[in-house]
Amino acid sequence: MPKPVSSHGKETRAHYARSVLIKQASLGSFGVVLRRLKERQQRRKTTITFIAGLLLNIAGSTIGWLKAEIDHEMIKVEIRNTLKEYGIARNNTKSEETRSNETATDDKSDEPEENERRLPSIILVLMTTFGRMFNVVGTIKMFQAASAFISLQRRKNLRSTTERLSQGEGDSE
Fold first, then answer.
1. What DSSP assignment string belongs to 103-165?
2. Are 48 and 112 in contact (CB under 8 A)?
3. Residue 12 to residue 3: CA distance in whole angstroms
4. Average pLDDT by consecutive 10-residue portion of the chain (173 residues)?
5. CA distance 21 to 15
6. Which of 21, 36, 91, 164 could form a cystine bridge with 169, CB 3.0-4.6 A?
7. Exposed / middle / buried, residue 154 (Cβ in 10 Å: 0-12, 13-18, 19+)
């Protein structure tokens, strides 16, 4: 391909680039290149949106799981405290040897066995709220990405069908 020469005998990049773009546009390949770039960019955007939605869903589910574990432990502590308040002993199913070994080595029978701290209610409410918000936003992002992907595929199929018909591959009746 001969390089364009300016009136002063030197080639200029701007003139060369412009002439190449004009030539590609006249052949129709410039539009194809732009369309492909736009499709790639849209695919990347759709993929990133889907992954972000998936990560938000995982984060929301993890927060919900942690809250459920905290609730479970709080209920166990509350039951233990209520039974202790009424003077009912816990049902220990350990063998006599294990019990005698524990009492010989551990004389802390008055202290609680587990940490009985209670989390403030506001923390539990915030965990529930943020967990559900992450799940909802994540699900919306995943559906947006799926609908964008389906839309891209439909556009691509319609374009290929149109190109085939315009090139005379269709049946004429």
1. HHH----SS-SS------HHHHHHHHHHHHHHHHHHHHHHHHHHHHHHHHHHHHHHHHHHHHH
2. no
3. 9
4. 51 62 61 78 92 96 95 90 83 58 52 64 93 96 94 87 72 52
5. 10
6. 164
7. exposed
What is the spatial distance between Cα 20 and Cα 158, in angstroms, rounded to a whole number?
A: 29
pTM score of the predicted model: 0.59
The one-letter amino acid code at 36 reads R
- Burial annotation 66-103 (CB, 10 A radius, 16+ → b, else e): ebeeeeebeeebeeeeeeeeeeeeeeeeeeeeeeeeee
